[in-house]
Design brief:
Distance between the termini of chain B: 37 Å
Oligomer: heterodimer
Helix content of chain B: 25-40%
Helix content of chain A: over 70%
Strand content of chain B: 25-35%
Largest sheet of chain A: none
Order of helices and strands of chain B: EEEHEEHHHEHEHEEH
């Protein structure tokens, strides 16, 4: 039939090209070349002629001819035809000249950015060259567009690491921000928000006043001021310890994700409680002034008292926070311990009512000593025992330094303890 | 090429939760892992649940110290990204962004300068100024991922982060990662998605029962993983 077609329609190139195809399948190289040469002679303007010629040359590994035929094909091809360019690159692939293939696939990509072979086949060439990353990029840019390949390769280094080799002080901005944001979060949760900070100690005072001042009739003159000067510092201490006790466990997500020093978590709690107690303390001072107890020169000594209490609070809070991840049952002991300490600190009774024989033992409790100082200043308008105060302050500063060192040593232990 | 970070025969065991007076039992999470991480590479870690992948990331990031073995790091900064970022539900997206950034070691000012970029990237718009408790799960994930786009440590560790939001955002997230990869950022990623490893990584390791059983080209490793799963 092909012979009939060749004889009757010599002006139709298809009969020769199909004959060539058949000859290729029959393995008849002679006939193949004959039909191709006829096609090349009579139909040199036809793209198909040269593409097929190149294809058959590639089939017989005659790459020099393949390049020649492909060159002709590319010359006569209109610009929107991708086939000759794909063939151009495929010849290089068959020659295993991968660099050449890559550059030819690049031509395909540039002229025909939507054609997949410009990426897929190029990725094969890149892989053969051992350029795995480039191969991955090529495949991805088929999906995300060729722009991906032209983006600059410079690594952005916009942000610096504040924590690298940081001391505890370099974490202060973070501690401050977290504490203030925690307060903000707390305020958003409750209806009365800020009001609670003041209402809570007042409620406590109401209960104690009712029990001790009224029912037991133990209150003396100015019992409300006496109670408040004991209660407000106590609430600060008590709340700090309570909220710190689980601070490390509660921060487990952060601990398992960042290498922040563990010590900052209880410190955040302490700062949060201190910021909350600040306005309450100011209100207390205002209330005392209204009652006609000052202000006087001794009020300046509130500053060292406050600093000593802060140190004591930091020590006990951080100590409890450090122990609880190891022995979680310790949480229950902390609660009972605080109640015990509350009764031993003279919040609703005057230490002077205790026999002087016991004073030495009683004031081994630093909280009892602190409350005595607060009352000496605020209720009795006299100077506190500054020598003993500095002794307590100094001891707890040293204790805190030791504690910070222990925290540093345990830094890598906590993530494990949390996981175990 | 000199590795950026080297793990030499790392072993980790955790104590099992046993009553105080009983003999302690241990669970071996990682057994003698040796691994070099080279600058600019994208390494995928694949393995079944509980194989030790996340533990390995925690060791690399320096959060957990190994029980034995050595980690050699000449001062490369490392950040671990995961979507379990502890957001405070009562705070708005903005506050959480600043806080998360600072927890990862950035200065407040630096993060605040990047806020516009993060809002734009997260597509949260006015929700960015609403408390996080009003967010959907997808929005949370989007915020967490958007914050991480400003990170550029020497080694970036990614724990299943790319599975965020809807398919459109996931594509955007992947594109961001690709750009990081192209900018020679060293990345180590843990994922269950074999496709992701094939598409993004130029090297992969397979972890099974705490042992690194294969290290090489992603195609080979995935093939081995599938054989193992059968």
């Amino acid at each position: 039939m092909l012979e009939y077609a060749r004889d009757n329609f010599p002006e139709n190139p298809n009969s020769f090209l199909h004959s060539a195809e058949l000859a290729k399948h029959q393995g008849n190289k002679e006939n193949l070349e004959l039909y191709l040469s006829i096609a090349q002679k009579h139909f040199p303007e036809l793209l198909e002629t040269w593409l097929k010629s190149a294809e058959y040359s590639m089939h017989y590994h005659d790459y020099i001819s393949a390049e020649l035929f492909n060159n002709k094909a590319r010359k006569i091809a209109t610009k929107n035809l991708v086939a000759p360019f794909i063939q151009y690159a495929e010849i290089a692939m068959l020659k295993k000249d991968w660099e050449l293939a890559l550059s030819r696939w690049e031509i395909v990509r540039k002229s025909f950015p939507k054609h997949p072979s410009g990426y897929n086949q190029a990725a094969k060439a890149a892989k053969a060259l051992g350029k795995n990353s480039f191969a991955i990029e090529l495949k991805l840019s088929q999906e995300y567009g060729p722009n991906l390949l032209s983006k600059p390769l410079v690594k952005e280094k916009t942000l610096s690491y504040a924590h690298t080799n940081g001391t505890l002080f370099s974490f202060f901005p973070l501690i401050w921000l977290k504490a203030t944001l925690n307060l903000k979060s707390e305020v958003q949760r409750n209806f009365l928000s800020y009001g609670w900070w003041v209402l809570e100690p007042l409620l406590h005072m109401g209960v104690y006043y009712l029990v001790f001042g009224f029912l037991l009739n133990r209150g003396g003159e100015n019992f409300s001021i006496f109670l408040l000067t004991g209660l407000i510092p106590w609430i600060w201490f008590n709340k700090s310890i309570n909220s710190c006790s689980t601070s490390i466990l509660e921060a487990q997500n952060t601990i398992l994700q960042t290498s922040l020093p563990t010590l900052i978590f209880p410190l955040i709690c302490i700062l949060q409680n201190t910021l909350k107690q600040g306005p309450v303390l100011l209100l207390l001072l205002g209330f005392i002034s209204l009652q006609g107890f000052g202000p006087n020169i001794y009020w300046w000594s509130l500053i060292p008292i406050f600093i000593v209490q802060l140190n004591i609070t930091i020590f006990f809070s951080c100590l409890v926070a450090a122990v609880i991840p190891f022995i979680r049952d310790f949480t229950y002991i902390v609660g009972s311990g605080l109640t015990f300490l509350m009764f031993l600190s003279g919040i609703f009774y005057d230490y002077k009512t205790i026999s002087t024989d016991w004073h030495g033992l009683f004031f081994l409790n630093p909280i009892a000593f602190l409350l005595k100082c607060y009352r000496e200043v605020l209720v009795e308008s006299s100077s506190p025992d500054l020598l003993s105060l500095s002794y307590w302050g100094f001891s707890f500063i040293i204790a805190n330094i030791i504690l910070a060192f222990i925290y540093q040593q345990l830094r890598h232990i906590y993530p494990r303890i949390i996981l175990e | 090429m000199k590795p950026l970070l080297s793990l030499k025969k790392i072993s980790i065991h955790y104590k099992k939760n046993t009553p105080i007076f009983k003999k302690k039992e241990y669970f071996e999470a990682l057994k003698s892992i040796t691994l070099d991480i080279f600058p600019g590479e994208t390494l995928g870690i694949i393995g079944r649940n509980g194989a030790g992948k996340s533990t390995l990331l925690r060791v690399i990031s320096g959060i957990i110290k190994p029980n034995s073995g050595k980690i050699i790091n000449d001062g490369a900064s490392i950040s671990l990204l995961s979507l379990q970022a502890g957001f405070d539900d009562n705070l708005c997206g903005r506050d959480n962004t600043v806080l998360t950034g600072m927890m990862h070691g950035f200065r407040r000012k630096e993060i605040e300068e990047q806020l516009e970029k993060i809002i734009h990237y997260s597509e949260l718009e006015e929700f960015f100024h609403e408390p996080v408790r009003t967010y959907s799960a997808g929005m949370r994930a989007r915020l967490a991922f958007s914050i991480s786009t400003i990170f550029s440590p020497d080694i970036l560790l990614i724990d299943e982060v790319l599975a965020v939001g809807d398919s459109r955002f996931r594509k955007k997230a992947e594109l961001t990662m690709i750009q990081k990869i192209r900018s020679q950022q060293t990345i180590i990623m843990v994922t269950h998605s074999q496709q992701q490893i094939l598409r993004l990584c130029d090297r992969a390791i397979l972890i099974e029962n705490g042992i690194s059983i294969a290290d090489g080209l992603p195609e080979k490793i995935i093939h081995l993983y599938n054989e193992l799963a059968d």
